[in-house]
Write a structure and sequence with these properties.
binds adenosine-5'-triphosphate, binds magnesium ion, alpha/beta, six-stranded mixed β-sheet, four-stranded antiparallel β-sheet, homodimer
Chain lengths: ~220, ~220
């Protein structure tokens, strides 16, 4: 379902070039829960942004469902990002002048098969807070709104950048179980960046990234 | 050195009142490294904001170095926040149109006994990136700039809100060792919110907060 072939991503800053990712190749099957591990600055967010069509690779191919998305432009790219992808950003990117419920509804409006916003906010433990604005919520509560927004789109591919970074281990576990359940029930493919090794044990596949390239891939037959 | 006496903090949202913190009392000695643990939404950030003078309690006393800071107004409050406190916010709050070095220098300019910005950025592992802007850095790299900015002020009291949330365990450990070292050498008091139980073991004291109040206090004689 997802195939990265020899991906390279450079950032040119004046006279300096930063090789964020190079010689990066891996495959992910449909319906899999895959975890990406790696130290700070390894290139994890860069890889996730490339898979989600938020950025373009400097070289190499990204093939999703048989189509090269690195060649997408304009309308095709917008349609891919809107309909196929649910994204939980590392810094949430909530709309600050909309309530928790409105933030989730906004994502549902652009998606044909979306789920019910209130139900998803209940599932992440925020039924009491749906009419609050992001600044009235704690860090972990804001993160849970961002997770609800991505799941409610009922996407084919869910990309999560440290979705439980601001959560305590109990709350984090409940959120992961929700992701795992959604993944199984709707055959959604999930790619998740984390530093939490307990989460890595729940995944079908773990891809370890170091200095911008794949360091090791571990297959887990009984997650 | 720090004494919280029966602290209460309410947020009034129209007809609803949220009791973020109530009946919260504890003491912290000078030079101690204290960790605050608790689930998402427990009131940890609220307590840290109150100690740092970023917000006012609804009721109760906050006494730092024998002075009631909850009664501070205007100039006294600004002086307290500038000279005594180093703050690592949960969402970094870096100035986006300044480089990493300029962000740290800005904090040093307002402080009489500040340390050398370049040296501190080197100690957090960013000597190659000091001339980059926040958007050019990864999540963990931005967090390390925020940590360097707080330490470089050479404050009496360092308040950190999940300072290693975006870091892998190796990078996180190096940062904590830096904080522990700074704490010992300069007799700086450090209060640190975290979900990482390994960090809690490094502290002199652990304060567990649940539903807005102190649930348990653990003293650790050999951190
Ligand atoms: N400005 C505000 N208006 C209304 N409620 C608020 C406000 N700030 C915080 N709260 C509420 O107060 C409670 C405590 O929030 P706080 O940010 O202190 O939690 P926390 O322990 O830091 O959680 P996390 O681990 O998720 O960051 C939460 O239920 C939160 O929703
Ligand atoms: N816009 C940019 N311009 C220049 N360099 C960048 C840019 N974005 C990322 N980088 C660099 O590319 C490298 C990889 O960044 P990336 O954000 O993918 O790391 P990461 O693995 O997600 O790290 P973290 O765990 O700290 O979030 C880093 O060294 C970073 O500084
Ligand atoms: Mg990242
Ligand atoms: Mg918080």
């Amino acid at each position: 379902y997802i195939e990265l072939k020899n991906i390279k991503k450079e950032y040119v800053l004046g006279a300096v070039t930063i090789n964020a990712v190079e010689h990066c190749s891996f495959e992910i099957e449909k319906g899999e829960l895959v975890v990406i591990l790696g130290p700070s600055g390894a290139g994890k967010t860069t890889v996730l942004n490339l898979i989600g069509g938020m950025d373009k690779p400097t070289d190499g191919h990204i093939i999703i469902d048989g189509v090269r998305i690195d060649e997408y432009k304009g309308k095709d790219l917008v349609k891919y990002r809107r309909n196929d992808i649910g994204f939980v950003f590392q810094f949430y990117n909530l709309v600050h002048n909309l309530t928790a419920l409105e933030n989730v509804e906004l994502a549902c409006q652009i998606c044909p098969d979306s789920l019910d916003p209130k139900t998803i906010l209940e599932q992440v433990g925020l039924s009491e807070r749906i009419d609050n604005f992001p600044y009235q919520l704690s860090g972990g509560e804001q993160q849970r709104v961002a997770i609800a927004r991505a799941i409610a789109k009922n996407p084919k591919l869910l990309l999560c950048d440290e979705p439980t970074g601001a959560l305590d281990s109990n709350t984090g576990k409940k959120i992961l179980e929700l992701l795992q359940k959604t993944c199984h029930e709707t055959n959604m493919t999930t790619v998740l960046i984390t530093h939490n090794l307990v989460i890595a044990d729940m995944a079908h596949k773990v891809i370890k990234i170091k200095n911008g390239t794949v360091d090791e891939i571990i297959i887990n037959n009984h997650p």
